[in-house]
Amino acid sequence: MESGNRGVSCETPAILTWHLTKRYGKARGIEDVNLNVHEGEIFGFIGPNGAGKSTTIRTLLGLIRRTSGEASIFGLDCDRDRTHILEQVGYLPSEVFYYDGMRARDLLKYAASFYRKDCSARIRELSAKLGLNLDQKVEDMSLGNRKKVGIVQGLMHSPRLIILDEPTSGLDPLVQRAFFDLMLEENRRGATILFSSHILSEVQRICDRVAIIREGRVVAVRSVAEMRRSAVKRVTIGFAESSTAAAAAVRTLEAMPGVRSLNADAIGASASAGSDAQSSGGSDSGSGAGGDRIASGTASASFLYEGDCNALIAALAGLDLADVEIAEPTLEEVFMHYYQPDGDSGELCALDARTAEAQNRGMTENRGAAERPAR
Amino acid sequence: MNVYLFELKAQLRGFLAGVITLIGVAVVFLYGAYPIYRDSKADVQHMIDGFPPQFAALFGVNKDVFSFGGFYRFSSLYFMLIVAIMACGWGLSIFGREKRSKAVDFLFVMPASRIRLYAAKLAAGLTLTIAAGVLFLGTVALIYAQFGDDPTATSIPLSRLLLAACSLFGIGVLFLSFGALTAVLLRRIRSVSGIATAFGVLGFMLVSLPEMTGEEKYRVISPFTWFNVSEALDHGSYEAGYAGLAAAVAVLCLTGAAAVYARADARGL
C-alpha cells in the first residue's frame, strides 16, 4: 500500500519534543524523548508494551503533565495552549470507553458540541464508511464497534493532527483495511498522523518514518524506506537427513554476511553467528548431544537475516533442507538485532548511538528553524 | 454550556429520586405527622417531661415542638440528612462521572480547559442543589398554609420558618463540595451512594456530639450545627461565625477540588 501525502513541510513541526521526560514518582515513564514530526507525514511510533508510547502521547495531549522538557504541537506548548491544540487534534486511544447508557449518535453529538464547526455531515459520512450503527448504545457494542465510534470521534472535526494509540486492536482485518484507507485519505487531505503501535508490519505499511522507543527512551528514528531496504527476516530451516548436512549448513550460514543470532536447535549448543558471537563454534562443540536427534530428523536452525534476499535464497538452495520458513521477526528480535547492548558498558550499540545523535542534531536544527514556543 | 446541560441531563434521574424522597419525607413529617403530634400535645408534653434533658436533646426534641416551626426544628435534622446524602451523591456523581465510566480521556481531549469543565460541572451541581432547596421551600410554605388558621401552629411566622429551611441550601452546597473533593481525590469511586451515605450519616451523628457533651467547641466538627435552625426560628438569623465557617469550608473544598481537577494527571486505563 502506498503512503499518502509525502510532501513534508519545512514549516513549524507538527510535533516537537525536546528532552521530554515524565516520571511517575520513582517509576519510569519516559526519559529525554526527542521527536520531530513534520507536518503532513505519517509518523510511526513503535515499541514493546510498556515502552512509553502511551505516556508520550498522553503528555502531548496534556492528559498527564511532563516532569521536564518541552513539547509542542504546531508550535503551541502542549500544556499552556492545550485547548487550542486540541481543537486541531483527533485522538484514538488504544481502549475506547464512553459514558454508560448513551447511544453512539448522542455521544458523538456531545463530542461534536466541543468543536466550533458542524460535524454532523462528517459523522454520517464516517459512520457509513465504517458501517457503524449510530442508534446502538455504546455499552452494548462489541470492542470493534466501540473502536469505530472512537475513529469517528477522532476524525469528525477534520483534525490537522491525528494521534493513534494502537488503533487496530479489536478491529477485524476488513475494518483494519478500511481504517488504513481512511488514514491515508486523511493524510492526503493534509493531516499529520502519529501512529503508535507494537506491530512493526502495520507501522511499515503506512508510515513515512518510525521512531523506536524502548524503556522510555527513543532509541532510533528511521525512515520506513530505509527499514525496508534493510528488512530483517527470521529464517527457520529444518534438516531431515544427516547430522553432517546440518553441521555443514550451520557452518555455511555462519560464514554468510547478514546472518545473526543463529540458533541451531538439536545440533548441540546454540551457535551464534555474527559479530557478537563469531567464535562460538556451536555446531562442533555440541554435536554429541544433538547428534541423536539429528539422526531422528528433528534438527532445525533459525537465524535473523539482513541483506539481499537473492543471496539468502541462493545460499538456502545449496542446502539439503526438509523445511524452510521465512517470517517477519518479532519486535523484540528486531531490537535485539539492531540494538545489541555493548559488551563493556551495556549501552546501546554504535548504530543506535549514531542514530540518536543524528536525530538530536536534526532536532536542534529544527528548533532553530521553527518558532520555538515562547515560555 | 454543553457540559452543564449534559450533566443536568445525566443527573436528572438521581435528582428526581432525591427530591421526591426529600419532599415525600417533608409531606409525611410536616403534613402527616405534625397534626397528630399537635393534637396529642398534652401526652407528648408529659412524655418529654419524663426524658432526661440530654436524651431529649439527642432527638432534637424541645418544648417548642407543638408549633409548626417547632416541629420543623425537630424534623430539620432528618431533612438535613437527606439533603446531605443527596448533595454529596451529586458531587461524587458529577465530578466522578468520567472516572467511573473510564471516560476521562474522552472528556479531557476535548478542546475545553479543565477549569471550564469543572466550572460547568459545579454549576450543574449548584443548580440541582438550589432547585431541590427551592422545591423544598415551596413544599414547606404550602404545608404551612394548610395550618394558617391555627394559632398554635403559626406561633412562629412563615418567614422565619423559610429562613430555617434555607439551612438546606447551606448543607446542600457544603456536602456537594465534600462530594466534589472526594470525587477528584479518589482514584476509583466504587459506590457513589455508599460514600454519600457515609458522609451524611457521619454529619448526622456528629450533631449529637456537642449536644450530648454540652461542649460548644465540638460544633466546629459538626457541619449540621453550623446552620443553627433554632437561631433562625427564634431570632430570624444564623450565627455569622458558623455560617462563615461553613462558607469557608465549602470554598476551600471547591477550590481544592478545582486545583486537583485542573492539574492532576489523567491516569491511563
From TrEMBL, chain A:
Subcellular location: Cell membrane
GO CC terms of this entry: plasma membrane
PROSITE patterns on file: ABC_TRANSPORTER_1, ABC_TRANSPORTER_2
One of the GO biological process terms: response to antibiotic
InterPro entries tied to this protein: AAA+_ATPase (IPR003593), ABC_transporter-like_ATP-bd (IPR003439), ABC_transporter-like_CS (IPR017871), ABC_transporter_ATP-binding (IPR050763), P-loop_NTPase (IPR027417)
Residue numbers spanned by region Disordered: 272-291
Keywords for the protein's UniProt record, in alphabetical order: Antibiotic resistance, ATP-binding, Nucleotide-binding, Transport
Domain of life of the source: Bacteria
Transmembrane segments: none
Topology class, membrane: Peripheral membrane protein
Principal localisation: membrane
Lyase listed as a keyword: no
Positions with biased composition (Low complexity): 272-282
Protein name (record): ABC transporter ATP-binding protein
Lineage per the UniProt record: Bacteria, Bacillati, Actinomycetota, Actinomycetes, Bifidobacteriales
TrEMBL record, chain B:
Organism: Bifidobacterium vespertilionis
Any GO MF annotation of the entry: ABC-type transporter activity
Highest taxon above the source species: Bacteria
The keyword Transmembrane is assigned to this record: yes
Keywords, comma-separated and alphabetical: Membrane, Transmembrane, Transmembrane helix
Entry membrane topology: Multi-pass membrane protein
Sections of the chain in a coiled coil: none
Keyword Membrane among UniProt keywords: yes
InterPro entries associated with the record: ABC2_TM (IPR013525)
Chief location bin: membrane
Annotated transmembrane regions: 12-34, 77-96, 117-145, 161-185, 192-209, 240-262
Domain ABC-2 type transporter transmembrane: 71-222
Protein name: ABC-2 type transporter transmembrane domain-containing protein
Location within or outside the cell: Membrane
Gene Ontology cellular-component annotations: membrane
